[in-house]
Design a protein that fits this description.
single chain; 288 residues; mainly alpha; MetI-like fold; 14 helices
């Protein structure tokens, strides 16, 4: 049992890391809040003074604000749907004994370690290019007209690219959860004559509930700030402008750091609303 002296020593040793972490978070947040109430034009005179809530009003009344919120949530929902469903299927497949199982698992997990910009460039040039891309050659082989993915199916393309990156993460978490399942339950159900589908629905899937919750929570936090894939592929065109990309455009176009900071505050508010919603609706599985 830890004594008072040992607890005090532990807090003392953790204090530098905690202070550094708080500074890492609080300093940028404080600067964002400060600039959001000011008109700061770095290339046109610098700090032009206090403007109150004008930046917030300008940002939220923009015609692109609510569509960007909708696009952000649509990308998050689409990626979560693909990664959770395919992640469960891949985890079940990788849990089966096969030749070269270790190599297969490494290959499945490898895309998670590819940088978003590199991943987007690969998909854009090697797969989705309407002239020389792999998909274009497949379409031509079947006598069909190649699809211009990034303009005709831009939203689906972005979701596909981002889901390809996050699928290994979901698979790894779900595979670990499947391997922790008591095999005796499955053997008993199989001996009682339960078909594979019922074993999955009543035994495996409930066991994966907590792991799926973790996957959803962690991925949502990162997916709300998707930027690199959009910047490399569509640059916000064809209905793919998320809130993060809108903030980037507003700062770049107006050269107004205050306006972009106000957008950043809106992004923080959106992230907290989504996080609270998930913790209340989905996060209940963590207490079971």
């Amino acid at each position: 049992m830890a004594t008072r002296h040992s607890r005090s020593a532990a807090r003392l040793m953790m204090a530098p890391a905690v202070i550094l972490l708080l500074g890492w978070m609080l300093v940028p947040l404080t600067m964002t809040l400060w600039f959001s109430f000011r008109e700061f034009l770095p290339l046109r005179g610098g700090d032009m003074g206090w403007v109150g809530f004008d930046n917030y009003a300008r940002f939220v009344t923009s015609s692109a604000f609510w569509p960007s919120i909708q696009t952000t949530l649509l990308i998050v929902g689409g990626v979560l749907l693909i990664t959770v469903v395919l992640g469960v299927l891949l985890a079940l497949l990788l849990d089966q004994p096969m030749w070269g199982q270790g190599v297969v698992r490494i290959l499945v997990i490898a895309p998670f370690f590819v940088m978003p910009t590199v991943s987007a460039l690969v998909w854009k040039n090697m797969f989705m290019d309407p002239v020389n891309g792999l998909f274009a050659h497949l379409w031509k082989a079947f006598g069909a007209t190649p699809v211009e993915w990034l303009s005709q199916a831009s939203m689906f393309s972005i979701i596909l690219i981002v889901a390809w990156q996050w699928l290994p993460f979901a698979t790894l978490i779900l595979l670990t959860a499947i391997q922790s399942l008591d095999s005796e339950q499955l053997e008993a159900a199989e001996m009682d004559g339960a078909p594979a589908l019922k074993r999955f629905w009543f035994i495996i899937l409930p066991h994966l509930g907590r792991a799926i919750t973790v996957v959803i929570l962690i991925q949502t936090i990162f997916l709300l700030s998707v930027f690199a894939e959009i910047f490399v592929t569509t640059q916000g065109s064809f209905g793919t402008r998320t809130l993060t990309y809108l903030i980037f455009q507003r700062v770049l176009e107006s050269q107004n750091v205050g306006l972009g900071s106000a957008g950043g505050v809106y992004a923080i508010i959106l992230a907290n609303i989504v996080a609270i919603f998930l913790m209340r609706i989905v996060g209940k599985n963590l207490d079971r």
